[in-house]
Design goal:
The complex is a heterodimer of chains A (146) and B (119). Chain A is mainly α. Chain A has four helices and no strands. In chain A, 87% of the residues lie in helices and 0% in strands. In chain A, helix 2 packs parallel to helix 4. Chain B has helices at 2-13, 21-32, 40-47, 51-64, 91-106, 111-118, and strands at 38-39, 67-71, 85-89. The termini of chain B are far apart. Classes of the chains: A mainly alpha (146), B mainly alpha (119). At the A-B interface, helix 3 and helix 4 of A face helix 1, helix 3 and helix 4 of B.
């Protein structure tokens, strides 16, 4: 048990700096790439996707390196607050619309069923009336012949 | 695309804009050059307002009709970068933000901010 714990700590001890190095390299060397991933939080077609990406390369060279990294971090915050919220709202609306469509279809089917039932009842009623009339007529005929 | 934009505008129009320090600072920056084009990053740097706060404010102003937006002409770009989005004040925006600043000047809440701006 203790050995396993020591092993886990020892392996984490190597993994943590490696992860930090990868994180640092990603943020440091490829902020554009990271920003491309971040803006994906915005729904498709949102102008903010292009806007934020273009702003990263605004006055390129003049902006300090650290400032650019901070900028990318800020965009992550913005995308989580704005983009994710939009995405959730859009998904909710789409789901609601789909449900409403389904309900409409169900209502349509119900309406057709009801209409068919009314029509069938009317047919049955008419047939019954015709049958009764015919039966009465035959009874009358029989009585006159006797 | 247009559908999404109108949806976003409606989403932002749901709540009335609160008068915050950030809003007053952005109003100052926009009214510094009322006829000019304003860029997101540049405005953020000039006002000291974080991007996470600035862009929702700009989106709200767009929804209210105080700003119009557009994209830089790619032919005018000399560096290797995509065209940026700019914001421009409308007549309504100029009037509304002017009124907002007039109110802020009277309010004690923004006194410290205005002192810094006038220095």
């Amino acid at each position: 048990m203790l050995n396993e714990l020591v092993d886990a700590v020892a392996s984490a001890g190597i993994q943590v700096p490696v992860a930090a190095l990868i994180f640092g390299l990603t943020f440091g060397l490829a902020p554009g790439l990271l920003l491309r991933v971040i803006v994906l939080l915005y729904p498709k077609g949102d102008p903010r996707r292009t806007e934020l990406f273009a702003e990263l390369y605004d006055d390129e060279g003049k902006r300090a390196y650290l400032e650019r990294v901070v900028w990318v971090f800020e965009q992550l915050e913005l995308a989580l607050r704005e983009g994710l919220r939009l995405r959730v709202a859009l998904t909710r609306t789409a789901r609601r619309r789909r449900r409403a469509d389904r309900r409409e279809i169900a209502n349509h089917e119900e309406r057709i069923t009801a209409e068919t039932f009314d029509w069938a009842q009317a047919v049955v009623r008419e047939r019954a009336i015709t049958f009764q009339k015919r039966a009465r007529r035959t009874k009358d005929d029989e009585s006159t012949s006797h | 695309m247009r559908k999404l934009q109108s949806y976003v505008q409606n989403l932002y129009r749901l709540r009335a804009m609160r008068k915050t320090h950030a809003l007053v600072q952005v109003a100052f920056a926009l009214l510094d050059d009322p006829d000019g084009r304003h860029w997101g990053y540049d405005t953020s740097r000039r006002t000291g307002v974080r991007a996470g706060v600035l862009y929702p404010i700009l989106a709200r102003m767009l929804a209210e009709g105080w700003l119009t937006d557009g994209w830089e002409d790619p032919a005018t770009i000399t560096d290797k970068r995509p065209p940026r989005r700019y914001y421009r004040l409308t007549a309504a925006g100029r009037a509304e933000l002017g009124a907002l600043l007039a109110e802020a000047r009277k309010s004690a809440r923004f006194a410290a901010l205005l002192r810094v701006r006038t220095c």
